[in-house]
Automatic annotation (TrEMBL):
InterPro entries: DnaJ_domain (IPR001623), J_dom_sf (IPR036869). PROSITE patterns: DNAJ_2. It comes from the Eukaryota. Coiled coil: none annotated. The keyword Metal-binding does not apply. GO terms for cellular component: PAM complex, Tim23 associated import motor. It is a single-pass membrane protein. GO terms for molecular function: ATPase activator activity. This is J domain-containing protein.
Amino acid sequence: MATPLVAGLSVAAAALVGRTALQQYVKYMARGPSGRAFYKGGFYAQMDRREASLILGLRESAGEERIKDAHRRIMIANHPDSGGSSLIAAKVNEAKDILLGKRKKGGPVF
């Protein structure tokens, strides 16, 4: 009589452990290859330094060379002439201009 009860509890425990492991695996895979979670949200109406640094993947206090290197790397992957999005390219250019101080916090570029 105790054997079916023990077997049932063992199956239930194994199912619970398996469910938890599967949930953790899905969370891990959603974080991406770098292990960091991606920014989940759209663009602001007016870009600020924080959003510009998020787009380029830099700190707000990054130097000019790092900003230019990040801009070049992202533009190679997203340039409209090579199949990328013109909106993304415009936002990347706007982010570079804001971080380099070439454009004030006015309206959008386009």
